[in-house]
């Protein structure tokens, strides 16, 4: 008997008031949540959007984080006793406020402000990705700044003694050395962002949880769609955690050589 016929038979018995075994009720709920009307395709679409949103938000966060980290590091590493650059000081102050505000307020509140106060756009998924990227930039900047500050200050002095300016020294000497230290932390930020994409559903962003809730609304059953979405998130996190572990082991091996 085909699954659809089995479902129709047991569903008809359930509607008629016949008591079914627990595994029959389980099958009916599973079929409605994932198989009926090809609803599994909605979970697949939501998963794809989740991965794209995570990648774009992290890319935006890395670009923004690098700019913020380099400026703040340049400000902090100005030689004492010399006249400080007023432009650098002003930009550093703006970036400090940015990092403080973003890290000091909930991401959910930030997304609501971006979607319903700043942009007031119906492109909720794009607005959500932008909000995630802005939020990630603050945390990534601290990760990168920590990596840059961890590099021996003599490396900067060596570059400057060779006639290189500050940004060339950062680009060719300091940043390549800092990458090994910050890559694992950036991987963790990717995993955090992956889970935080679920917040997009609160502003009607069409990611995995959004479609799971839509299925739950149509089937009048919250358990299977939500547990299914949770399992997908868990599998994705486990995959990326495994990949991150391999990356960390490879970095440790390269350090021993």
Protein architecture, described:
The protein has 257 residues and is mainly α. The chain is built from ten helices and no strands. It has helices at 3-15, 22-35, 40-76, 86-104, 107-118, 124-150, 153-161, 166-196, 208-219, 223-256. Helix 7 (153-161) runs antiparallel to helix 8. The mean pLDDT is 85.
How would you briefly describe this protein structure?
The chain is mostly helical and 257 residues long. It is 81% helix and 0% strand. It has ten helices and no strands.
Average of the residue pLDDT scores: 85
Oligomer, anyone?
single chain
* C-alpha-based Rg, rounded: 25 Å
Low-confidence stretches: none
The biggest beta sheet is recorded as: none
Distance between the termini: 61 Å
Structural class label: mainly alpha
H and E order: HHHHHHHHHH
Fraction in beta strands: under 5%
State the helix count.
10
Shape: elongated
Helical proportion, percent range: over 70%
State the total count of DSSP E strands. Answer: 0
């Amino acid at each position: 008997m085909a699954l659809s016929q089995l479902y129709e038979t047991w569903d008809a018995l359930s509607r008629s008031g016949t008591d079914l075994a627990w595994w029959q009720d389980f099958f009916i709920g599973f079929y409605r949540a994932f198989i009926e009307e090809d609803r599994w395709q909605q979970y697949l679409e939501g998963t794809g959007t989740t991965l794209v949103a995570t990648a774009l938000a992290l890319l935006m966060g890395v670009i923004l984080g690098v700019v913020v980290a380099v400026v703040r590091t340049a400000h902090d590493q100005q030689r004492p006793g010399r006249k400080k650059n007023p432009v650098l000081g002003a930009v550093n102050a703006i970036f400090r406020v940015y990092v403080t505000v973003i890290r000091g307020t909930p991401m959910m509140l930030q997304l609501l402000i971006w979607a319903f106060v700043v942009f007031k756009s119906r492109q909720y998924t794009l607005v959500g990705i932008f909000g995630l990227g802005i939020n990630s930039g603050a945390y990534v900047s601290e990760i990168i700044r920590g990596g840059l500050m961890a590099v021996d200050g003599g490396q900067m002095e060596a570059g400057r003694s060779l006639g290189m300016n500050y940004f060339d020294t950062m680009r060719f000497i300091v940043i390549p050395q800092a990458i090994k230290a910050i890559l694992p932390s950036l991987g963790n930020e990717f995993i955090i962002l992956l889970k935080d994409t679920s917040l997009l559903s609160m502003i009607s962003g069409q990611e995995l949880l959004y479609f799971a809730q839509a299925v739950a609304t149509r089937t009048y059953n919250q358990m299977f769609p939500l547990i299914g979405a949770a399992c997908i998130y868990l599998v994705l996190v486990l995959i990326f955690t495994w990949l991150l572990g391999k990356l960390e082991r490879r970095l440790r091996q390269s350090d021993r050589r």
